[in-house]
Design a protein that fits this description.
CATH class: Alpha Beta
Mean pLDDT: 85
Shape: globular
Strand content: 15-25%
Structural class: alpha/beta
Order of helices and strands: HHEEEHEEHHEHEHEEEHHH
CATH superfamily: Alpha/Beta hydrolase fold, catalytic domain
CATH architecture: 3-Layer(aba) Sandwich
CATH topology: Rossmann fold
Length: about 250
Amino acid sequence: MAKAAELAYQNEDAVKAEAGRWGFDRVRHHLTRFTPPFPLADTQAYTAASDNMIIIAFRGTEPAQIRDWLSDVNTPPRPGPAGTGLVHFGFAEALRSVWPQVKDAVSELRDNDQSVWFTGHSLGGALAMLAGAWLSFEDPKLRADGVYTFGQPRTCDRLLASAYNTAFAGRCHRFVNNNDIVPRLPPEPVYHHVDALRFIDAAGRVRESTTLLGGLTERAKGLTADAFAPASAGIRDHFMAAYRTAIEKNLT
């Protein structure tokens, strides 16, 4: 899933070639471009299918643009899937712009009862989380088998987070790399995270525990002032390559 999330940053030819090497012989690309003053430049994703599984991976955004897609944090949240709770307006609109394409691709490619997986990094993680919710809550026949996100920002209110945790118990894995600043945004108490946290500590070890979240948040406070500076640990730990490298180390 980490490799699939990282691949979402590549162009269409590169995605198709690499997915093919993994055994995914059918790929569909999804793209929507926004116009000013909407803070998101575009939404990009791909759906890749093999005989056994389907992966929908959403592209994230460059660190320099993080301020842009969080600039609508003061916009009132919009209703969540099936009217459950509330979601960040910008993230919901970004997903909505490609959602018909994604659903059509899954319906078309799911011809062998394949499992369905969502993944994404940064903004892409928020979209992956919401896509899993929308699919499972509004179209149970196509429910997601699992969701893996990396450096995902807070995306929804407490009501939707609670419903999501129940629906996706054991099937959602939210990776946070050490001092990555993006998972602290947008701020509480309006927005909340879903379970289950997979925290990558300073030594690169993956900790399967939510008890570290309090300490993680405290450490992040010292980074807030210069969180968007190029050399900041808050940004350095956010890069998808850092997530993939740490996960690969844990596998060995």
